[in-house]
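Sample log: phosphoglucomutase (alpha-D-glucose-1,6-bisphosphate-dependent).
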Amino acid sequence: MTIQTIKTTPFDDQKPGTSGLRKSVKQFKKPDYLQTFVQAIFNTLDNVQGSTLILGGDGRYFNREAIQIILCMAAAAGFGRVILGQGGILSTPAASNLIRQYQAIGGIILSASHNAGGPDGDFGIKFNGANGGPAPESLTEAMFAESKQLHEYHIASLQPIPVDKLGTYQLAGMQVEVVDSVSDYLALMETIFDFDKIAALLTSDHFKMRFDAMHAVTGPYGHRILEERLGAPVDTVIQGEPLADFGGGHPDPNQTHAHELMAMLYARNSDIDFGAASDGDGDRNMILGKRFFVTPSDSLAILAANARLIPGYKDGIAGIARSMPTSQAPDRVAAKLGIPCFETPTGWKFFGNLLDAGKITLCGEESFGTGSDHVREKDGLWAVLFWLNLLAEKQDSVENIVRKHWAEYGRNYYSRHDYEAIELKDANALVDALQAQLPGLVGKQFGALTVGATDNFTYTDPVDGSVSKNQGIRILFTDGSRIIFRLSGTGTQGATLRVYLEKYEADVSKHDQEVQDALADLLAIVQQVARIEHFTGREAADVVT
Ligand code: VG1
Ligand code: CO
């Protein structure tokens, strides 16, 4: 076998963000760019020799070329075997499952999640460790440091592996196993949910659902699990064919980007009872009832409150974790159940230690991410199956389930406003100005609201004591309302400012307001203190979820 060593010049921009390294396809196609980051990953790991690596991606443009390159580099690095999803396809949660199932050293997942794909879109790569979860900050920092000083990479001479054909192949002394992308994941889902009950619901004539795969990775998973295994009619999965450019759309399951699904569920004469969508790499979920949107924060709270109805969680849950900007609805459920609710920075990597230590069973983020200890990633289809199992148990509508939850716990009105692709310098100026004002805001009154505290969120991991600073500016009001500002760590153009608004309403007679109306006073405070238009020239957000 021939292993070549290629001399390179280091890159200084390979710092992973909230979820791996994301750049434009153009950037990734620069000579040695992908190779440098892959070599940096391999050099940072211990005990690579003879170990197992999981590999797959969301099928976006450049996925196939990248897979072949990574296989040859893995062979050169001395891995014993690579388990590859057929066609180079693995959803993020399915990859997390395979890492755990095969006791792999970790996995490489090729995805830029909800970012647009295609030759002018984005590509991404992330490494998940032996627990199946995203590499912690300490590891991604080490990879970044390595990429900045790397002067060569190693690669076995290219020998294309027939990635579409199931089977075992040899590549320069390494074994490549091409496995079905869905079956192990499906088997895992069957251990958690009552498939018979869900099948009865999906085949009954009084229930109809649509699952929007957004031309991304969950198409094959949706067809196999919902239609073939559970018997839902064949038109249940829409946009189910994965496309390298996602059909030109943003595979982001929210009210703005999943507009086909929204139109179906919100049609005046809609006969669809349940709608769900997932994102590029299959880890996000949006849940809809008929003309009814479930906020991801409420969804987490409702799943937690009802977990005992699901076979996989029948003995109850140990605890909940939510990312800091996620609404405090799950906290109320945790309080009632007498279990802890942890508040972590944005990004799934912060849940890993809590899950591994058994401190939590369920976790989630406001950004359409929900998951549990069954893997170490958020999991879109798992959330959909959870809701289906719940609907089958309760024989009630999505809207009724949510309204009853609000009646019991109160409603956390919640919305996120995103200002996308603003100039980096403008975003930084805005954040600096905001930060400078924070101490002076405490005690200040805005109409009926009084600022109780302000800070830039710092997280101390309760398991390993690691500290993560500057995780978002918080303005906390005495009545529990919150305004949070963060800059995105997944965008690839300029900066994206996220503004998160939350207001709690206990009074059930006030649970029928329009969300933006209920939050209007908070948005007015945002304009006053952050002066977004002054700094960015933007009058309103690009995307409101
Ligand atoms: C966004 C979300 C965050 C999520 C991350 C990765 O990050 O806000 O909650 O964990 O995307 O999700 P940011 O830094 O842009 O706000 V995914 O489905 O893109 O892997
Ligand atoms: Co995703």
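Observation: Residues 318 and 358 are 7 Å apart (CA to CA).
Observation: Residues 113-114, 279-281, 283-284 surround cobalt (II) ion (ligand 2) (CB under 6 Å).
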